[in-house]
Design goal:
This protein is α+β, with helices and mostly antiparallel strands and about 160 residues long. It folds into two domains: about 60 residues; about 100 residues, 2-Layer Sandwich (Zincin-like). It is about 65% helix and about 10% strand. A four-stranded mixed beta sheet has the order 1-2-4-3, sandwiched between helices. Strand 3 and strand 4 form a beta hairpin. Helix 1 packs antiparallel against helix 2 and helix 4 packs across helix 6.
Length: about 160
Amino acid sequence: MNFRTMQAANRRKTFGLLAGMGLLTGLVAYAALTYFGSSGAAIVPFAVGIALIGVWGSYYGSDKLVLTMTGAKEIQESDNPKLFGLVQEVCIASGLKLPKIAIVVDPAPNAFATGRNPEHALIAFTTGILDVMDRDELQGVIAHEMSHVANRDTLVSAVAA
């Protein structure tokens, strides 16, 4: 199995996971109707609505939720031209669109990617990783995070969460 075949299979699995969430909601609605009879019918639209909000929220809002949870602040090129330059280099080499960039004030060296697809990606770096890594090491971390964006691992993580 080559990379493109695996990538397509993983996209189908992600879609299947989302569809499975909808099916599970339908089964819960059916169980509620079976158990409660017609008095349970009032629960069905509510349950379906909650499920749809959950699926929609995990797809469209996961990046914002992650930023809020980590305290990451999106930055502009003028805030850290060196970091933006490194990310731009990796983007040119990989053929990917420049993601948004954020900083998390935390002494622990870490970085993460989030977003539902390469067009809506964000990469966040802690102040700790920016302080301890040299240019080449940081470029490797950026390439690693961009690979998550390119392979849509960020979508899978968002849906799984």
